[in-house]
Amino acid sequence: MDVHTAFLNGDMPADLILYMRQAPGYVLSENPHKVYQLVKSIYGLKQAPRIWYNLLHKFLTSIGFERCNKEYCLYVQKVGDSNDDWLIVVVYVDDLTIVSRNAQLVKNLQVELNKRFKMQDLGDLHYILKMEVKRNRVDKTMSLSQTKYIHDLLAKFGVQDSTAVSTPQVVGVDLVAEAIMTQDEIAKQPYDYRGLVGSLQYLVRGTRPDIANAVRELSKFLSCYNKTHWDAALRILKYLKGTSSYGLFIDGKMANVSYEVYTDASFASQNNERKSITGYLIMIAGICISWCSSKQACVAKSTAESEIIALSEGVKESEWLSIYRDGIPSDKANGRMV
Predict the structure, then answer these.
(1) What's the pLDDT tens digit per position in 143-164?
(2) What is the residue range of the signal peptide feature (predicted)?
């Protein structure tokens, strides 16, 4: 659901006094130099997002929702005694995603929201944050992908007609840093390397763990790149062209909701620094929910040490994620396996 003109709903806090000039076309002829004191939040205020969030938080908690202690965009409400009597609301600014097994609970919440705010019901979730959501209610499956976003990137960087490749990286090719460029020198470059790498990072954060290592490598050269680095970034795009439909798949028929943590390390793979690379993958019910490819902060003295460092990072991430798992209803949850 979408909140119409969300930022206009909030009142200015008593301890916050702000003024604005008279708007063009609404200037008082007898007092053209006077200003207005704001009593309501408006778009353009740096305080507006927080004022809106505090208002929404107050409303949701007033009707029985509890906010996740570690993730303030997640609200949960237990209505009855069964696992069907839960409501979950995920907040992204003025967009609310409502989750429940009980359709009537969703309808009741929509009624309450419409009483308080001017809302627009966008129906079932199909697209959010540049991710496509496809659901098969018969087979009880769901998939998340970023196909449209990938196609937009292919067109933006002019490789939509290029031949797809089967891997995101060329094995055995080491990228070497150029001299660090100034901002003016970067602005004069004939290719938008930073823009492309940033776009690829968004894919990694969304639904594409398979390019995490390749994008990590490119991210080291944001101020010291050349044509070789640009070609390496374009190779990832060509790989994505052939795998644009890849993403995350959720199977609702799984008998058990297993919680699995996988870690690995590449010992001393950074030739100049001799630092190792950490990789981890965390899965719940067979779906990846968190992944990482990152350079270790210290120099490991052995393969075993690099593996232990990677294991530590994976377990720390899984401990953080367990906060959400423990707060969300499930009748199939099992313990953690590392």
Answers:
(1) 999 999 999 999 999 999 999 9
(2) none
